[in-house]
Amino acid sequence: MRSPDGRIAVAAGKSRPRASAQERERVRLYEARRRFNASLVQRRRRDNVIAGVAGGILLLGILAGQAAYYTVGPGTPEPAPSPTPTSTTSETPAPSPTATDSPTPTPTP
Known about the structure:
By secondary structure, this protein is mainly α. The protein has one helix and no strands. It is rod-shaped and about 160 Å long.
């Protein structure tokens, strides 16, 4: 049956439920994709935090190991013998110079 302007008339009730079902399906797919992408972002953030914490712990462990190796372990430097301090006070008095009968040298001209 044709409408007055020449188009074919379609029953109004048949096309609307199909369009509505397609629209609902598109909305459902859109929401599913949105939730999926949101979960991916959340997982990436969680993985980055875990990697950062694990990396920090690894660095602290490496630094502690190096410090322990060079302060306590086989990496410690060999102790060098230090010279023994000499005492400034002696128990025996030093001999005092005595006068000698030897001639004194004369300067040469």
